[in-house]
Design goal:
- There is one protein chain.
- 40% of the residues lie in helices and 15% in strands.
- It has 1001 residues and is of the alpha/beta class.
- A seven-stranded parallel beta sheet has the order 9-10-8-11-12-7-13. Strands 24, 25, 26, 27, 28, 29 and 30 form a seven-stranded mixed beta sheet that branches. The protein has a six-stranded antiparallel beta sheet with strand order 1-6-2-3-4-5, with no helix packed on it.
- The radius of gyration is 33 Å and the shape is elongated.
- The two termini are 35 Å apart.
Length: 1001
């Protein structure tokens, strides 16, 4: 690098080079004559600094050409080129964020991004199917808004169970280092925050627990300092029905928070959910109203209403995007589903019949409407828990009914639906796996066995003869349920053991989903015992994850099952995860499991889809995933759920190709059918509308008609969504070109391995396709950088994963991974530094090279060139924003440097793979390089300027095409080369002689 004398007054052009503080910098667009905003040459945005020329020494600088004697081998050019490109964090192409994104988006995942680019303030509801990449789609939008400067900061609102996952996704895939704001972290954050200031900054990045931040203690501070880009995960849980009750109050508090955020007109808002419509219109309209108030009331039966919705709503089903995974991407080609029936043991059937008789008697003997509804939900809870497992039934018989506190029949119904059923608009499965109680005051303390303790003390009352009889009956039922435990009498458990064994033998790793904590623990205990009995040829690892565990404990439990142990031994290949529905939403399990068994039927088809979506999703390496549903062929409870809900849902999906939520009529239909089951055979003593058996068929028929109508309406409307008018394949081609200019994934993986090999890291392959590296022998500067990235106590050797992300303390082979970036930065800096200051083995990349190879038949020269461009980008408010970008390209010519014959780009790139056929004398090689450099100012640089101008026009055309596709502003769009390009490397290729000669004679 050379510098000129310090001028008295100097106005530096954007993109020009200056020397200050002992190093070289690039001048950025925000600079003024009084304050220069500078980025280190080859540095990242985190290194940007402000310099006052009046107070500090600043001088113009030029990029020095290579030194002829600084010669490298055949790998030198490829290593230097990739190290340079990995260092780029803001490409010159139309998608500014792709340089800092490690994930390769599929074409369909670009559609929400293009829809966002159309809007002045981004407001979108992303409602794609479970498992096809909503997190990636939201992350791409966030990364692009941040890269373009249209957003200053980011906050993700989610459940605490998903907070760490969101943080890892943002960091690993999008280079966004977000802070976790949870009850467990707020104390530390407050201690780290200066007195009188907020934990939140408008330009910060955060992942926040929605329920934590909605509390009055933190809400106002958050609203005042919230960043201008908000992503809301599982947004449907924030707009549940407006009924009263604890769950409704929680939902209303969430909605109030989102409403306050959405009321700021310039705030970007992304709502993410796979279930935007629960079957009830009101919550869906409230959700849409957060995006645009008109959507809360406009009629979607009109063309104008549908057009308005299309601007804010994107929804794709699996069938819509299958074609985007035809190139070997990790996405299952199909889901093999099957029902697996079993027949109840005679003792189990006897107890079920007794429970049905008890239910019929107690409901009919109720004294008034309130007691009737309380008893109804209490007995329904007992029926459901007994259908689940003996353990759940025993716990239900020893637990107070949640409807006991209800003051009206309506409140009893709301409480019962929430605790016994699986309503689609509930706040989710996060805490819904507790066993619902059966006991009511009349039976207080009755069912307690000698070792059981009731949850609440019973109210003082005198027991009647009827009370004593009911207590004895409940005690007898609890004892009978206990005797059913184990595969001998519990044929459902026996069927599961056989099913799981078959799946394991086929090479599958299943998740068994249960409705209740008691059932999950019961199943896990028996699976562990049977699958690992003495003499078992292949031991099976079994773990249970339920709502009793905190979100962090769930992650730890899964990691213990699927990860290496403390001694570094690999995880068990044969493994089973037993879980409740606390894992049915949001959690990614596709890398470790590939089959689902529904041990308990969900009373909502959406829950089944969510369960299966844990394995049937983007990133699944198994081609065909399996989903098996267990049900009792002679269990009337299972029969109702299958026939009224699950099978109808599947039949409508297959006929129409559309999966729609259960209509609102489902609740009344299920009520009617269950009432028919419980009350069939006798006339109700307490008559109430909807209790008569003859109404069952009519209710079920009305449900199917409403369901079919919803599916047909949805099928018609989807063709009108804006997503179908976007030519995703054309945009995908633009993305592929940008990614190719930044370095492909294969190039990054090859660079990391070769560079660390040259730097004495001794990479050793792993079974999973990555490798490990010993850091002790690495150069000190790189070793320190790796420790800073992974933490001083990171595992050794360092594990590099061939995956988009890696566990904490390990590295992913992606361009944005901090260890890969540190390696590239070290290789680049070592190549550009003075050769005399660094040991030669620490410089695997060199700026010059002469190679004799069979890849050419005439002498050919390759130049590694760095271009700088000044981007003039129209913004949403009508102004034009200036940004500086860099691009690295290779150019090549045949013949002498004084009369070059320039080659097409593909031929130039092919030279990077040329292999040396014999050694070249260093003195001879240095002479060739000197001759080429002598022609650089007069012959080669003019041509490089032309190449830079052509590349600028090509980039501008690419910006224009993408903006046209997204209907974004075009006025003022320009891409202008800034200054002469830098020649980083000169590599000369000579044809290998066919007859052995003396050394270069």
């Amino acid at each position: 690098m050379t510098t000129a004398a310090q001028p008295t007054q100097q106005q530096y052009a954007v993109g020009s080079l200056v020397h200050a503080r002992g190093r070289e910098w690039v001048v950025l667009p925000d600079s003024t004559p009084e304050l220069l905003v500078l980025r280190p040459l080859g540095g990242a945005d985190d290194d940007v600094a402000g310099v006052l020329p009046a107070l500090e020494q600043v001088a113009p600088a030029t990029f020095a050409p290579p030194t002829p004697s600084d010669l490298g081998d055949q790998q030198a050019a490829g290593l230097l080129r990739t190290a340079l490109r990995i260092g780029f964090r803001s490409g010159a192409g139309p998608f500014r964020s792709l340089a800092s994104v490690s994930v390769d988006p599929r074409p369909y995942q670009l559609v929400p991004l293009l829809m966002a680019l159309r809007q002045d303030t981004v407001r979108l509801l992303i409602a794609d199917d479970v498992g096809i990449g909503k997190t990636v789609e939201a992350g791409l939008i966030a990364a692009e808004l941040l890269a373009q400067g249209d957003a200053r900061g980011l906050v993700v609102l989610c459940s605490p169970a998903l907070a760490e996952q969101w943080r890892a996704e943002l960091y690993g895939k999008f280079g966004v280092d977000a802070r976790l704001v949870l009850p467990s972290t707020i104390g530390r954050l407050l201690r780290e925050t200066p007195y009188g200031q907020s934990v939140f900054r408008p330009d910060g990045a955060y992942v926040v627990s929605t329920d934590f931040i909605k509390s009055p203690r933190h809400r106002e501070d958050f609203l005042k300092n919230c960043p201008d880009l908000v992503i809301v995960d599982e947004a449907h849980s924030c707009v549940a029905d407006t009924a009263i009750g604890a769950s409704a109050r929680t939902s209303q508090q969430r909605y109030s928070l989102l409403r306050a955020l959405a009321d700021r007109a310039d705030r970007h808002l992304l709502l993410v959910t796979a279930t935007p419509h629960s079957g009830k219109e009101e919550p869906f309209r409230r959700l849409l109203g957060l995006l645009d108030n008109r959507l809360a009331t406009v009629s979607f039966d009109t063309e104008a209403g549908r057009r308005l919705l299309a601007e804010y709503f994107v929804q794709r089903r699996r069938a819509d995007i299958r074609d985007d995974f035809g190139d070997g991407a990790h996405f299952p080609t199909s889901r093999d589903t099957a029902e697996s029936p079993y027949t109840l043991h005679r003792d189990y059937k006897k107890l079920l019949d007794e429970v049905l008789a008890y239910a019929r008697e107690t409901v009919r003997a109720a004294d008034g409407a309130l007691q009737q509804r309380q008893r109804w939900w209490s007995t329904l809870a007992l029926l459901r828990t007994l259908s689940s497992s003996p353990a759940a039934a025993v716990q239900s018989l020893n637990t107070r009914a949640g409807v006991e506190e209800a003051d009206s029949p309506e409140e009893a119904d709301r409480t019962g639906e929430r605790t016994v059923s699986d309503p689609a608009d509930s706040e989710g499965a996060e805490s819904a796996d507790a066993v619902p109680g059966t006991r009511l005051p009349a039976a207080a303390e009755a069912a307690d066995g000698p070792d059981e303790t009731p949850e609440h003390d019973a109210p003082e009352r005198e027991d009647t003869a009827e009370d004593d009889e009911e207590k004895a009956r409940l005690i007898a039922m609890a004892e009978a349920a206990r005797k059913l435990e184990g595969p001998t009498r519990d044929t459902k458990l026996k069927k599961l053991i056989a099913t799981v064994t078959d799946l394991l033998d086929e090479g599958y790793r299943p998740i068994v989903f249960c409705r209740y904590i008691a059932t999950a623990d019961y199943v896990a205990k028996h699976l562990t015992k049977v699958l690992n009995k003495k003499g078992a040829e292949h031991p099976v690892a079994v773990a249970s994850v339920t709502g009793e565990l905190s979100p962090d404990q769930r992650v730890t439990r899964i990691a213990e099952l699927t990860g290496a142990d403390e001694d570094g031994n690999p995880p068990a290949e044969r493994r089973v995860l037993v879980a409740t529905d606390c894992l049915s939403e949001g959690v990614n399990l596709q890398e470790s499991f590939d089959a689902v068994v529904h041990y308990d039927l969900a009373w909502n088809p959406t829950r089944h889809e969510q369960r299966e979506g844990r394995v049937d999703r983007f990133g699944q390496r198994t081609d065909v995933v399996k989903a098996l549903t267990l049900y009792g062929a002679d269990n009337p409870v299972d029969g109702i759920v299958l026939n009224v809900l699950l099978r109808k849902h599947e039949r409508i999906r297959r006929v129409t190709g559309i999966s729609v939520p259960v209509p609102q009529e489902s609740e009344s239909a299920m009520q009617a059918v269950f009432e028919g089951l419980i009350l069939r055979g006798e006339k109700a003593a307490y008559e109430q509308e909807g209790l008569f058996p003859q109404e069952e068929a009519a209710a079920a028929e009305q449900l199917e008609i409403a369901w079919q109508s919803s599916a047909e309406r949805e099928k018609r409307n989807r063709s009108r969504y804006a997503q179908h008018r976007i030519k995703k394949d054309e945009v995908a081609a633009e993305v592929a070109e940008v990614r190719a200019a930044l370095g492909t994934g294969e190039e990054v993986r090859d660079f990391t391995r070769r560079a660390l090999t040259a730097l004495r890291g001794m990479p050793a392959p792993t079974k999973q396709g990555g490798f490990t590296v010993h850091t002790d022998a690495l150069p000190l500067g790189l070793r320190d950088a790796i420790s800073a990235a992974l933490g001083p106590r990171h595992p050794r050797p360092v594990v590099f994963h061939d995956a988009p992300s890696a566990p904490r303390g390990e590295a992913a082979l992606t361009r944005t991974d901090p260890v890969v970036a540190a390696t590239a930065r070290f290789v680049l800096d070592a190549a550009l530094d003075d050769a005399d200051k660094i040991p030669q083995w620490q410089r695997p990349a060199r700026r010059c090279g002469v190679v004799r190879t069979k890849a050419v038949d005439r002498r050919t020269t390759l130049l590694l060139v760095r271009h700088r461009f000044r981007l003039h980008l129209p913004t949403r408010d009508g102004s034009v924003r200036e940004q500086l970008a860099e691009d690295a390209r290779v150019v090549a010519f045949r013949g002498s440097a004084t009369a070059p014959q320039w080659l097409p780009e593909d031929e130039a790139l092919a030279l990077l793979d040329a292999r040396a056929a014999q050694n070249t004398d260093p003195t001879f090689a240095a002479g060739h390089i000197r001759d080429i450099l002598a022609a650089l100012p007069t012959v080669l640089m003019p041509e490089l300027r032309v190449h830079s101008a052509d590349l600028g026009k090509k980039l501008e055309a690419s910006h224009h095409r993408v903006r046209t596709a997204s209907r974004a502003r075009l006025a003022g769009l320009k891409v202008v080369p800034q200054g002469d390009p830098d020649v980083l490397g000169v590599y000369h290729y000579l044809p290998a002689p066919t007859i052995p000669q003396g050394a270069d004679a």
